[in-house]
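Structure Section — protein described below
Tokens — whole-number codes for backbone shape
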Amino acid sequence: MAYRPRHDPISPEAFAQLVQQAIADLPPPYAKLMESIAVVVEEEPPAEVLRDLEMDSEDDLLGLYQGHSLADESFFRPGGEPPPQISIYRGPILRLCETPEEVIQEVYDTVVHELGHHVGLGDEEMPY
């Protein structure tokens, strides 16, 4: 059974810092890619996102990439589209992980996974 702390061990602010640190720890070519992606930390995945993805539980979604992948980029794409965005969901990650060290690793893995979608990788091709 997943560790469920009585008190939140990692505040929203500290969690957001972990996300920023994960981005800073990426190898330079990947960190450069992150410069064009908006990254947001949300407490939980929105219900409509879970419905759209046909997920039964909010605990099944740790992060989400929204936007066109670099593999789909085109000179002819119409302007006015929002920039790509990665959402990292604090609640599911904290419920999944039993220790602060696991949280740090899961945040990094989730950032890398979502960045993988940005470059055009499918879930089955991801390193995490």
The chain is about 40% helix and 10% strand. The two ends are 22 Å apart (CA to CA). The longest helix spans residues 100-118. The CA atoms of residues 19 and 39 lie 9 Å apart.
